[in-house]
């Protein structure tokens, strides 16, 4: 199939819904052979039936699952051109209400999951000859927001892990670029839950909450998973062959103020 990602194999984590599904769709539309991975494998199977990608059960916190995913990709595809570390969880409450278990549970997905993915997949990425890792951070990895300390800290770690790996891989002459994407407000099940919470606490009006969310953004809009998919396609493609270690902010101007 022709396209900007023709001939490439892409593994997208957290692909059962939201931004991950948007990235899987965008990459498949550009000709990549996409492996859609999630701990919710039923969600990936639904997507697989719809757009003809492969579904894979993967809990990103599990070393064994990552080893099994690598074995599957080696056997079915031989190498991996694009790894999108997208799976993530959020936690919204004041810092004093974060238990240590909350903190560790969130870090296990948002930080350990990326480390395990990059470490396990490095040989398969290198074997592709021109690989790209795309890590999904957040605008919360660039600036502070109240009542989400663990989340913000995890996304700051994603930003820095990205730059560190970009430099490490380049210094070892490994053909793997590594960049982060920093989405603003993107309409997904994760943001829908957050918006329900803001309505309950009265910080945005119940009658048209999405208009209220949009009005917080300079472009007066809420983004869609497709907006992030377009950025991931660029970073995954050979058009970005000179791009490594960057932060691609896709947020309607939110952090430009
Ligand atoms: N939606 C936004 O506004 C927004 C903004 C900035 C950053 N992000 C980031 O984008 C990414 C995707 O967010 P979303 O809004 O699509 O969230 P979502 O909750 O709608 O989807 C997340 C997906 O990740 C999967 N997942 C969670 N834990 C997992 C695990 N341990 N192993 C495998 N899969 C797991 C879930 O099953 C789900 O399918 C996250 O990293 C999130 O932090 C989202």
Describe it for me?
The protein is α/β, with parallel strands linked by helices and 257 residues long. The chain has helices at 18-29, 41-51, 63-76, 100-128, 149-171, 189-201, 209-215, 225-236; strands spanning 9-13, 33-38, 54-57, 82-85, 131-136, 176-183, 247-250. It has one domain (9-185, 224-256): 3-Layer(aba) Sandwich (Rossmann fold). The chain contains eight helices and seven strands. The protein has a seven-stranded parallel sheet, with helices on both faces. Helix 1 (18-29) links the parallel strand 1 and strand 2. Helix 1 crosses helix 8 and helix 4 packs parallel to helix 5 (149-171). The termini are far apart. The model has no long low-confidence stretch (mean pLDDT 98). The site of nicotinamide-adenine-dinucleotide (NAD) has 29 residues, from helix 1 and helix 6. Nicotinamide-adenine-dinucleotide binds at residues 13-14, 16-20, 38-40, 43, 58-61, 86-89, 109, 136, 138, 183, 185-186, 188-191.
List the helices and strands and how they pair.
Layout (H helix, E strand, L loop, with lengths): L8 E5 L4 H12 L3 E6 L2 H11 L2 E4 L5 H14 L5 E4 L14 H29 L2 E6 L12 H23 L4 E8 L5 H13 L7 H7 L9 H12 L10 E4 L7
Parallel strand pairs: 1-2, 1-4, 2-3, 4-5, 5-6, 6-7
Helix pairs in contact: 1-8, 3-4, 4-5
This protein binds nicotinamide-adenine-dinucleotide.
Radius of gyration, in angstroms, nearest whole number: 18 Å
Largest sheet: 7 strands, parallel
| The CATH class | Alpha Beta
Number of distinct beta strands: 7
- Give the structural class: alpha/beta
Average pLDDT number: 98
Bound molecules: nicotinamide-adenine-dinucleotide
Strand content: 5-15%
CATH T-level fold name:
Rossmann fold
Number of domains: 1
| Terminal residue distance | 42 Å
The string of secondary-structure elements, in order, is EHEHEHEHEHEHHHE
């Amino acid at each position: 199939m022709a396209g900007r990602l023709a001939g490439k194999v892409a593994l997208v984590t957290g692909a059962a819904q939201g931004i991950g599904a948007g990235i899987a769709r965008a990459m498949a539309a550009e000709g990549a052979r996409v492996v859609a991975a999630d701990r919710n494998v039923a969600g990936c199977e639904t997507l697989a039936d719809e757009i003809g990608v492969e579904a894979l059960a993967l809990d990103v916190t599990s070393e064994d699952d990552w080893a099994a995913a690598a074995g599957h990709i080696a056997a079915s595809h031989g190498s991996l051109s694009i790894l999108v570390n997208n799976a993530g969880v959020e936690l919204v409450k004041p810092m004093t209400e974060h238990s240590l278990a909350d903190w560790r549970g969130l870090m296990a997905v948002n930080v350990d999951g990326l480390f395990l993915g990059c470490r396990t997949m490095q040989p398969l990425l290198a074997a592709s000859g021109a690989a790209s890792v795309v890590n999904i951070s957040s605008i919360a990895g660039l600036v502070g927001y109240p009542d989400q300390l663990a989340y913000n800290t995890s996304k700051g770690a994603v930003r820095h892990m990205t730059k560190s790996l970009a430099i490490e891989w380049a210094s070892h002459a490994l053909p793997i670029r590594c960049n982060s994407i920093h989405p603003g407000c993107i309409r997904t099940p994760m943001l829908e839950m957050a918006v329900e919470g803001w309505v309950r606490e009265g910080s945005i009006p119940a009658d048209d909450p999405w208009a209220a969310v949009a009005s917080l953004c300079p472009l007066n809009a809420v983004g869609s998973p497709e907006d992030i998919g377009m950025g991931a396609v660029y970073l995954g493609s050979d058009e970005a062959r000179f791009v490594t270690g960057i932060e691609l902010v896709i947020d309607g101007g939110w952090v430009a103020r």
